[in-house]
Design a protein that fits this description.
single chain, 220 residues, mainly alpha, 11 helices
Length: 220
């Protein structure tokens, strides 16, 4: 179970750092709104556990970021709007950030950067000169480099989120996503991600794709 008090405190620290000495309204209601969103019942993978993992990975990668506080805010918002049967979750999450952050005291420039980073998680393909985008995308994809048991739990949770999709359609759609990821020249753009996560993630993705290509009843 995620520690909600610890997460709330992390958000408060991040928001206060991002908005600077000018300050703003009490951060706690904003934290609680986001935590409520991350605990919605339709979520199985995109939960507070995923949020915590992304924030933890940003802590590992923050030395590569230009503005780590903005990257952390983007992590908080990147799946804040999440309905598995909708395709515009990232866009709606970015718009939520664009509404909430100025009210919370964040500058227009930093708000725009948070929204840009959230939108970047659609394809996880940041530019070579985009260190903040690289850190967020690497942190979001780090689950792909998990040990076998954790990777299996991840794929099971994703399937649960899409429980309403028939098996054949899910296998086809999931395989397309895996191929899209494998077609990226690099899954991870930070030096740490490239050295620590790339090989394992590609192995996991390739293995899952091979499993999806088998007949539903297994190999003949």
């Amino acid at each position: 179970m995620a520690d909600l008090d610890a997460l709330r405190a992390r958000f408060v620290r991040t928001l206060e750092a991002a908005r600077g000495p000018a300050g703003g309204p009490d951060p706690v209601p904003y934290a609680d709104d986001l935590l409520g969103r991350w605990q919605e019942p339709q979520r199985r993978y995109h939960t507070v556990a995923h949020l915590t993992a992304v924030l933890d990975h940003i802590d590992v990668l923050e030395k590569y970021a230009h503005d780590p506080d903005v990257v952390r805010l983007a992590a908080w918002f990147h799946d804040a709007v999440y309905l598995p049967d909708r395709s515009e979750n990232e866009e709606r999450s970015a718009r939520l950030a664009e509404r909430a952050l100025p009210e919370a005291g964040v500058s227009a420039a930093r708000t725009a950067e948070v929204a840009r980073l959230v939108r970047l998680t659609v394809g996880h393909d940041p530019a070579d000169d985009d260190p903040d985008g690289q850190v967020l995308c690497d942190a979001d994809l780090a689950i792909l480099a998990s040990p076998p048991s954790a990777y299996a739990a991840y794929t099971a949770a994703v399937r649960e989120e899409y429980h309403f999709v028939p098996n054949d359609a899910f296998r086809t759609g999931r395989a397309a996503i895996l191929r899209q990821l494998l077609d990226l020249p690099r899954l991870f753009r930070t030096p740490y991600g490239a050295s620590k996560w790339e090989a394992t993630a590609r192995y996991n993705l390739t293995s899952e794709l091979e499993m999806l290509s088998l007949p539903p009843d297994g190999p003949s």
